[in-house]
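Per-record layout

source: Leptospira weilii str. 2006001853
name: Ankyrin repeat protein
length: 392
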Amino acid sequence: MPKKSETFWDKLLVILAVMLLTWELRADGFRGEHAELFNTVRWGTLQELKSLVAQGENIHGILKDSGYYSGRTLLHSACGREGLDVIEYLVSKGLDVNAQDDNGVTPLMIAAHAGSSEKVQYLLSKGADPFAKNKSGETLLYYAAGGGLDWFVEDLIAAKIDPNASTQTGWTPLHSAAGSGNKNVVEILMSKGANPNASTQTGWTPLHSAVSSGNKNVVEILMSKGANPNASTQTGWTPLHSAVSSGNKNVVEILMGKGADVKAKTNRGYTLIHLAIERHYTDLVQFLIQNGGDVNAKWLDYERAPLHLAVKENQPQIVLLLLTHGALPNIHYSGWGKVTPLHIAVGFNFVECAKILLEHGADPNIKDGLHKESSAELAKRMGHMSDLFKNK
């Protein structure tokens, strides 16, 4: 009996959790005036919508004080859901296909971004404006590129919409397509003169976007058309940083094969090896080292070397990898702390890391710059690693 009871309650808890999650998702969608109507349009059925309208709900109401969604009509909301029936009903009731929310976004933009050819074609047939821009300067071409609507992209360019039209902050349709991994759209835009090195105000290029999407085919297309593999943002972040950050070794290899700098670092000295260590990507750390990455480069955040970071992250395999490829075992923070990797290992009681460091020449008697305490003294004070430091 106890087992049956437990099984029943376990199942009941799961059902309740799913119900609660569903309720939260719907409740979090839209709030305030007209919330029930908007949530019904977004997640309910056409019949439920008609029922609310019959009860006197204002079908022409707009969202207010809803952050990014402020100013949206029910038609905006309907364009983000599956199916066309609700959209057709709302248009038949007189909702404006060219209504702009507080950010200047139209229903057609939402449909295009969702990649729905059916909705886009219907809205166009009802007079939706393909030349509209939102307040940030994003055109329909920007949304269509992100949604992967290759036919619509071609039509818009044929209608003289500039493939290099940029937003107020410099984002272009190519950024949008590359970031969504839309290979066909990227090829179309490139064939129509889109600039592969277009840069936002912060220095982000379509190649950065493509790498972040993880689509190696798009990366290769951009590179073949002259995209700069060493383009860096205002903070010094390169496409290679993005590739390493996502752990995409294939893209890392493609970029480096086209001249991406393995020693690239941000303005604060954050190298690719630092990044790979923080993400615990042992294979990428090894690959970067084998291709010339600097194992002793210091990151300005406390002047940490890769070895400091590997120990802090308790990655003994990476610690060994660094030490066997020239990492200095006694390297220390350059500032007031002068902390060595061994100090870190002892402080966190990372025994395996401490053992590897000692086996590769780490000096347990070097004192830090703040407390004037050696690793051996620290171990004794904290009661850590007595066997390792027995004769130190």
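summary: Confidence is low (pLDDT under 50) at residues 1-12, 14-28. The first helix runs from residue 2 to 29.
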